[in-house]
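Quarterly update from the structural biology core.
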Amino acid sequence: MEPIDIGLVVSGVMVLFVLFGMRVAFAAGMAGLVGLVWIFWAKFGYAPDKLGKAITVSVKVAGQVPHSKVSTQALSLIPTFILIGYLAYYAGLTRALFDAAKKWVGWLPGGLAVSTVFATAGFAAVSGASVATSAVFARIAIPEMLKLGYDKRFAAGVVAAGGTLASLIPPSAILVIYAIIVEQDVGKLLLAGFIPGAFSALIYGLLIVTMALTLPKFGPPVGGFSWGERLRALPPAMPIFFVVLIIIFFIYNPFGGDAWGTPTEGGALGAFVVFLMALWKGMRWRQFRDALLETAKLAVMIFTIIWGVLIYVRFLGFADLPGAFAEFITGLDQSPMLTLILILLAYAVLGMFMDAIGMLLLTLPVVYPAVMALNGGEMVSAADSAFGMSGPMCAIWFGILVVKMAEFCLITPPIGLNCFVVAGVRPEVSVQDVFRGVAPFFIADAITIALLVAFPWIVLWLPAQV
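Predicted structure, tokenized:
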């Protein structure tokens, strides 16, 4: 059996494991190790006395890959960004952000729901984790929406969908993971997420306003705030934007010259600033301990998935599956744009059965080379490319598209993680209620994806300025 055939068989078995409920990290790690043993044993002619040698070589390969990749500086961004989000919650910044959004846009039809979306977008700018964003605003926003008469399903759906914005708006853990897997510049990818993230929040807000204008007994607007109250609501929320500016200035140095530090150092500095704010706001030892524990739990979960999937990725390299898939994709007798759209639709389907991070880690080693080949290669110029952009810019554009598609995974049944988090925080809302509540936001996401595909400059303008 050829290595490519071994790759297909092992990958098919791994997908079955995932569909039957095995954790992605363990399914990928086990499949990768078994696949490596199979390939090396096949090279030894399946000799019984060579099986031990094949296992020894495979274990060495599987053991070296996770350490070499996870010990890179880029991945250390993830715990610092997650910690910023949890410390910001205990510093009271999330409540201040929600109150400011309510007083400024609450007068709109469906104003409290719109305020929730904009507040989650603001919080996403200091939190790299969608799960943390959803959990925080489930405690803050849902009770207030229920008091105003919002349907509990829609109220929960707004929070779950708003939490997905943390996947796109920097600092984003998923964008960091994408950059590491495809070996692209982390800083430019994070910068590219700002405008699409704000654009997604705006589309969500327009959807809510449209529903409020067309549906009877939708949540009423929140009015009665004077300009003085609105202005006084801004200073308590400003520290969030202050932290964002610190990170941006530290990483990108808008004054010209070399950057002041790495993204990891910028994230650590942001976490330290939020920590000081939390102490000033009266954070106690128990709250600090909870923030550290929640950060550790989420970071370990992400790192475990990465470890397992990287073993599988190394196996794919030996099986030459990415190269074969790229040749198949580029050989299709159809336009590259149609092929790209079909790939994005495939991600929408995969999102129903896999978590976002696991899906990207498992598919990118195969799909990314194919997309780059469709455009003309890693080093193609914009003039010679299929999508009208250079190779590096195509990598950034596809990264934002695929991360936006990964947001579907966070709210699509049956394993939409954000929906389970919201239901876990609010016992009065069932998981089924949350899934029903997020359904309208699929339309908003479809519109956003279509516009990002049709107008790539929405994604590429900001990183092109760096």
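The chain has 21 helices and no strands.
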